[in-house]
Specification:
With 248 residues, the chain is an alpha+beta fold. The protein is 21% helix and 33% strand. Bound molecules: zinc ion (2 copies). Keywords: Membrane, Transmembrane, Transmembrane helix.
Length: 248
């Protein structure tokens, strides 16, 4: 596991529940697929400062520290500021970023989200703030899921990226929610009716599974309704998605 930039041995670390590889010589970091979206700005700063700069020879050909494939620049004019380079491994979809670029990247994304929040406008796309692999993006798929995702911020992607193919629809006074999870999980949904102030909690799956579906006739669909998915893995760890408005 050698650093793509300087060739020194990288260290395996766990930050915010994700495994990363970090080079304490040049400060470069290798994230697993979609991992760079989930790291907070503060942790990005810690990582970027964790370097000693003994001697750095920048390698001209950069290889993935995990599987040795050639790294190529991740192309997205929308997501990545012009002076920042993220290198992607097309085999494992990991992303390598130098210390300085990691800081610039997280700062730029944070500023962008603040801008949209401040002006109360939805983000034009998840791609505008997240580095997403092709596979992952296709899995998100449907327009419903896409528009829901626009409202989230990057730090909450961790819970969100467990949920795939989210589909919400209504028929008469029935509401149907279905989705998949990356790993088998127990699930429930919490509805909040902001018109009446009522909260309704509904079990979806009481045994771990990767396909979740629930219908309910308990809600007044004319009201202002919000929902939140609560997922529990086999070890009992609970993650929640952001509270979102039902797209009806
Ligand atoms: Zn290095
Ligand atoms: Zn790789």
């Amino acid at each position: 596991m050698l650093c793509p930039d300087c060739g020194k041995k990288m260290e395996e670390q766990v930050i915010e529940d994700q495994a990363i590889l970090h080079c304490t010589n040049c400060g470069g970091t290798f994230f697993e697929e979609n991992g760079i979206n989930r790291i907070s700005y503060n942790d990005a700063k810690l990582l970027a400062n964790d370097k000693n700069f003994e001697q750095i020879t920048i390698l001209s050909e950069k290889h993935c520290p995990r599987d040795h494939s050639l790294l190529t620049p991740y192309e997205s004019k929308e997501t990545i500021p012009p002076d920042v380079t993220l290198l992607e491994c097309l085999r494992c979809r990991g992303i390598f970023v130098s210390a300085n670029d990691l800081i610039f990247f997280k700062k730029a994304i944070g500023a962008k989200i603040d801008y949209f929040k401040l002006w109360g406008i939805p983000l034009p796309s998840v791609r505008a703030v997240a580095v997403l692999s092709v596979l992952f993006f296709v899995a998100v798929g449907s327009f419903t899921a896409f528009s829901l995702w626009q409202q989230q911020n990057v730090s909450s992607i961790q819970a969100e990226d467990l949920v795939r193919n989210l589909y919400i629809t209504s028929s008469n006074h029935y509401l149907l929610i279905s989705f998949r999870t990356a790993v088998p999980m127990k699930s429930k949904v919490i509805f909040t009716d902001r018109t009446t102030g009522q909260t309704i909690e509904k079990e979806i799956k009481t045994e771990p599974t990767d396909y979740h579906i629930v219908t309910t006739g308990d809600l007044d669909l004319a009201d202002e309704l919000y929902y939140q998915l609560v997922l529990t893995d086999s070890k009992g760890n609970v993650t929640k998605t952001e509270v979102k408005k039902l797209p009806l």
